[in-house]
Specification:
- This protein has helices at residues 13-19, 27-34, 36-42, 48-65, 76-88, 105-131, 139-162, 171-175, 178-181, 184-190, 215-235, 239-258, 262-281, 286-304, 307-316, 319-337, 377-403, 410-425, 434-452, and strands at residues 195-199, 204-208, 347-348, 371-372.
- The chain is mainly alpha-helical.
- It has one domain (25-460).
- The strands form 2 sheets. The protein has a two-stranded antiparallel sheet. It has a two-stranded antiparallel ribbon with strand order 3-4.
- The chain is built from 19 helices and 4 strands.
- The longest helix is centred in the N-terminal third of the chain and has 27 residues, at 105-131.
- InterPro entries: WaaL-like.
- This is Ligase.
Length: 464
């Protein structure tokens, strides 16, 4: 009788590596977006981005060391130039430009390190989202997640309207020592609140901010996300979901107006004009009918409700115009004095535009320390990172717009509209943290449309 001895195969290290599951899970990206209300309520908010960047970076490095390629987005060299310039500019932190508050470099370093950590975290988010495959996280699902963020923005705006004084102490805030959690900057990160109470048109009134912390950030995200709701609505076959999307758009008019956010109004105009131009050039003239209907709806809402009076009152009260002009002038003066690498970060002005007195008083309500570079991403880039950093930042997103200009899919138009919106917004809004996160996710969607080689509409995508 012949005895058959089964062959025993011993897998070597290379075979073990090959057998490992090296796919990138979707939960780091989906977890940030889908669970953002939870992060906000816990007091994590924007802190979730560096926290999630840790597992994302680990997963990317693990896959790269196993021999799988790591794809880089087109124009990534521009972004590297920006990051290098941001690091190099730290050397100028000790400089005290004219008419700014004198402070040691060590005192300015924590804020700069915070910004660098956020820029680094969002770089990881860009690479991770761009390297995900359709099986790991489909473009259709990512669009739906971004559309959900717009719905969250509208809900936060409505909360700010009806309960402007709503706020609570988050668990993370409770864990911090009183001396730390009472600092203004820390409080803005960990303390959830519905609105900023401000006197803009006579009397203190709430301006929607939840869940983004600031009214300006709320308005910026509104513009960056609104197109994704339209893409998601067009992609679904559910009539109920389409109706809910249109209802959300209609409901968004009220908080958008009540926010008194002129930058938001301008940004929406830019988005509408850009998208309309893209569709008209593609021969889709029906967009003109949609534009006319949307214009009529907004006009009716302004005429038939008190919202019209709110808009007019805001246009008649440009209290921030003088401050913005003052800060732009200071930013350009600083850029002239240090044009290559800037000053590494922002500076506080010595007094305000009407007086060198530090702090407000009954005699000079517009006096006080204003932040040079705090009134727009462009001015911050020029002042903090100089011409090199500004060129890298603008070069990256500008290159993306040019590279993906022929993408006429719904995702292509919405993604490029978000980037165009960001270019107008940088004149009055700062991008860190969530606006820049939505910008890099828009870039990742454009990049994935290009890398897949098929510009499929979301409705044609059968993957999860």
């Amino acid at each position: 009788m012949t005895t058959v001895v089964p062959a025993i195969t011993i897998a070597g290290p290379a075979q073990h590596r090959a057998s490992r599951d090296l796919s990138l899970p979707s939960w780091p990206v989906a977890g940030i977006l889908l669970l953002y209300p939870l992060w906000w309520a816990l007091g994590l908010g924007v802190l979730i981005f560096p926290l999630m960047a840790v597992p994302m970076l680990f997963l990317l490095v693990r896959r790269r060391t196993a021999g799988r390629p790591l794809h880089l987005p087109p124009g990534f060299a521009w972004w590297i130039i920006f990051l290098v310039a941001a690091v190099v500019s730290i050397a100028a932190l000790g400089a005290d430009p004219a008419q700014t508050v004198v402070e040691r470099a060590a005192g300015r370093l924590p804020a700069v390190l915070y910004k660098l950590s956020m820029y680094g975290s969002l770089t990881v988010l860009l690479l991770y989202a761009g390297n995900l495959t359709e099986q790991e996280l489909s473009r259709r699902r990512l669009v739906r997640l971004l559309a959900g963020m717009f719905v969250l923005t509208v809900l936060g705006g409505l909360l700010g309207m009806v309960a402007g004084n709503f706020e609570f102490t988050s668990p993370v805030e409770w864990l911090l020592p009183p001396g730390i959690r009472n600092k203004g900057f820390i409080r803005s990160l960990v303390h959830p609140y519905a609105a900023q109470i401000m006197d803009i048109v006579g009397g203190e009134k709430p301006r929607p901010a939840a869940p983004w912390g600031y009214t300006n950030t709320w308005g910026n995200n509104f513009c960056l996300l609104v197109s994704w709701l339209l893409v998601a609505a067009a992609a679904t076959r559910s009539r109920a979901k389409k109706n809910l999307a249109w209802l959300c758009l209609l409901a968004s008019i009220a908080p958008a107006v009540v926010s008194l956010n002129r930058g938001l109004w301008i940004g929406l105009g830019v988005v509408v004009l850009y998208v309309s131009a893209r569709y008209v050039l593609a021969g889709k003239l029906w967009i003109l009918g949609v534009l006319a209907l949307a214009t009529a709806t907004i006009w009716l809402a302004l005429v038939a409700t008190p919202l019209g009076g709110t808009v007019q009152a805001r246009l008649d009260n440009g209290k921030s115009n003088g401050v913005r002009s003052f800060l732009i002038e200071r930013a350009m003066d600083g850029f002239t004095e240090s044009p290559v690498i800037g000053y590494g970060g922002t500076r506080n002005t010595l007094g305000g535009r009407n007086s060198i007195t530090v702090g407000e008083s009954s005699e000079c309500e517009r006096c006080g320390n204003f932040t040079v570079g705090g009134n727009g991403q462009l001015w911050q880039l020029l002042y903090a990172n100089g011409a090199v950093g500004t060129a890298g930042y603008l070069g990256f997103f500008g290159y993306g717009l040019w590279r993906f200009r022929r993408d006429r899919s719904a995702i292509g138009v919405a993604g490029s509209a978000a980037l165009v919106s960001s270019f107008s917004a940088m004149l009055w809004y700062n991008s860190l943290v969530t606006p820049l996160a939505f910008m890099v996710l828009a870039y990742a969607l454009l990049w994935r449309n290009w890398i897949e080689g098929t510009r499929i509409e979301p409705s044609q995508d059968r993957s999860r």
